[in-house]
Amino acid sequence: MANGLSGAVVAAGCAMAVAVPAAGSTAAAGSTAPPTTRVFARAAADGRGLLPTVNAYRAAVGNPDNGSNAPNNGGRREINWDGVPDAQSAPNLLPADFLYNTARRGAVFTAPGNRFQVSATQNNPTKTAVRFGNL
């Protein structure tokens, strides 16, 4: 990501917490100490309530959102989970490289036995229950 920042988003319901290295923060050469981090956290009644914190995180990791464009020296890419087609949603497995080669978001996911799934949408043709109701 831009400025050497990386982060992970953890979302449960309408809550999120993200930590990224603070701007200009690095560990000393040969040190095992992690760089200082900046935490973005918020709970809200709905997704709209999370938007100010999501936008602050976006600003910290850099603009623009490069989407599926070729790699750039600046900016970020966002994964649109709703963009995963039904054929690659639960109960089907998501190919490990789908978000790298097909959706071109720069991510490859692995799991033991290559069993990685994205929850189905409510209007999926297989009528799989959402939120991994197939499990």
Layout of SSEs?
Layout (H helix, E strand, L loop, with lengths): L8 E4 L2 E7 L15 E7 L3 H15 L36 H5 L33
Antiparallel strand pairs: 1-2, 2-3
Please explain how this structure is put together.
- The protein is α+β, with helices and mostly antiparallel strands.
- Helices cover 15% and strands 13% of the residues.
- The protein has two helices and three strands, in the order βββαα.
- The chain has a three-stranded antiparallel β-sheet with strand order 1-2-3, with helices on one face.
- It is globular, with a radius of gyration of 17 Å.
- The model is unreliable at 1-15 (pLDDT under 50).
Q: Which short descriptors sum up this protein?
A:
3-stranded antiparallel beta sheet, 3 strands, disordered N terminus, single chain, 135 residues, alpha+beta
Fraction of residues in H or I helices? 10-25%
Shape: globular
Largest sheet: 3 strands, antiparallel
Spans of at least 5 consecutive residues whose pLDDT stays below 50 are 1-15
Beta fraction: 5-15%
Can I get a quick summary?
This protein has 135 residues and is α+β, with helices and mostly antiparallel strands. The protein has helices at 47-61, 98-102, and strands spanning 9-12, 15-21, 37-43.
